[in-house]
Amino acid sequence: MLNINRKLAKLESEGSYIRVGLVGAGQMGRGMISQIESMKGMRVVITADLAIENITNAYKHAGVAVTEIVCTNDIKEASAAVQANKVVATTDMKLVTSLHEVDVVVDATGVPNIGAEIAWDTILNRKHIVMLNVEADVTVGPLLKKMADASGVVYTGSAGDEPGAIMELYDFADAMGFEIVALGKGKNNPLNLEANPTTAEAEAKAKGSSPKMLASFQDGTKTMVEMNAVANATGFLPDQPGMHGFEGTVQDLPGIFLEKEKGGKLNGRRIVDFVNGVAPGVFAIIASDKQEVNAEMKYLKMGDGPNYVLFRPYHLTSLETPLSIAKAYFDKEATIAPYFGLQGETVTVAKKDLEAGEHLDTIGGYTVYGKLLKATEAKQQNALPLGLVDSNVILKRPIKKGEIITYADIEQTKESTIWKLRSIQDRMF
Fold first, then answer.
1. Which of 116, 167, 294, 341 has its CA 20 to 30 A from that of 415?
2. Could you give the CA distance from residue 140 to residue 151 in angstroms, rounded to a whole number?
3. Rounded to whole angstroms, how far apart are CA atoms 305 and 282?
4. CATH top-level class for 344-428?
């Protein structure tokens, strides 16, 4: 089996390349376009965004000549442009998902409802879909995967995203027969459940990022969603609602992730969690019941046991997405997918006291944050999945700060695509 770099080089030497369609020319999408332009055997042939200048600037910064960029919403013009080895900028995301010349579609919007719609349309058009949209994945991913499997295409999360990086450690350890005790990630900033775009504005401006996106990291929502994706992919569960969020260094991890009766901090094994102090890395805690294996691990300076840590100190976000594109195209395999169905649920929690009649906003906003529960716990509480929250959701009663919002607490002014897909998923599973 050739490695991806050799497969891509071979494809290019044959005068061909993987034709990628991208939806979303924000920070993630722009970086991905530039990275792919540096690669052999792959090109982003069409990109959709509401702001056409975001796309043209992304292509220009990637080294694509202005004369090679065709701006159009017409499918015949787009098709002719791609066949002429030009690239297309469009405001119509359905042009990306339906264009015959596209092999693999990437969703880099970060908006759950739009991501669900992109994945649905892509699979209906029998193309592989790579999700840089974990929020959509944890909400309707099990349904989308089942649909993709039936259609003979790949539904996958992205390499470089923390769930994908964790999954690589999991697959590595699982293939060798290690017991995997825990899977986790470092959190980049202190947990602030009250963070919102206003409180995050100054830091976001300094970093050149979106205040809303930064707030979703600070209030813990992004971490909950990411570990939710890992739970659905592996069957591992949060050890307690919201996970522990331990403090520690990489060297501390093997001792932290022991059961309490053994001097550690866990209630059980096969768990997902996050740790303050090891960011931006991801980790797997592994163990073995074999004397010779433990002796070898000690000799290799992996520690004295009984637990050992596999630690990856980086994840390159959308710059690694091309690896998932290539894996789907060449090997028909996912980097990470909800193999175990809905194991976890990131539920909706009030960020402040909320009034009856109030519209909820979205992830990283002012009204709600996410908390990871076991899916069984969420179902028992009739908890509202965070991925279903948008401005069409209105509260029917006052909700206190820190309270979980349930389906019974809300009504909709309009049913979105992700709500429809979630309804189908709940009936199917």
1. 341
2. 17
3. 20
4. alpha beta
Dig out the tokens for 157 from the structure. 């999360």
pLDDT in tens, 43-83: 999 999 999 999 999 999 999 999 999 999 999 999 999 99
- Collapsing DSSP states into helix, strand and coil, what is residue 87? strand
| CB atoms closer than 10 angstroms to residue 346 | 30
Residue-wise pLDDT tens digits, 4-22: 999 999 999 999 999 999 9
* pLDDT at res. 1: 44
Is the bond preceding residue 280 a cis peptide, omega within 30 degrees?
yes
Rounded CA-CA distance 417/421 in Å is 6
Report d(CA 163, CA 168) in Å as an integer: 9
- Catalogue the E-assigned strands of 214-343: 237-238, 246-247, 271-276, 282-287, 307-312
Q: What is the signed CA dihedral for 324, 330, 331, 337, rounded to 10 degrees?
A: 30
Return the domain boundaries, the chain.
4-161+318-331, 162-314, 344-428
Q: Give the contacts of 278 (CB within 8 A, at least 6 positions apart).
A: 186, 248, 249, 250, 253, 311
Residue type, 238: P
pLDDT tens for residues 330-368?
999 999 999 999 999 999 999 999 999 999 999 999 999
Give the model's pLDDT for residue 208: 82
Two structure tokens written together for 332: 């028909």
CATH 3.50.50.60 fits 4-161+318-331, yes or no: no
- Residue 2: the pLDDT is 66
- 3-state secondary structure string across 192-219: CCCCCCCCCHHHHHHHCCCHHHHHHHHC
Give the separation between CA 176 and CA 193, rounded to whole angstroms.
Answer: 39
Percent of the chain with pLDDT over 70: 100
Q: Which residues of the chain have pLDDT under 50?
A: 1
- Give which of 409, 417, 416, 343 is closest to 382, Cα–Cα: 409
Bridge partners for 369 per DSSP = 349
* Interstrand relation of 179-187 and 271-276 (parallel, antiparallel or unpaired): parallel
283, 183 contact by CB (below 8 A): yes
234 contacts 171 by C-beta, under 8 angstroms: no
17, 43 contact by CB (below 8 A): yes
Phi and psi for 18 in degrees, rounded to 5? Answer: -75, 125
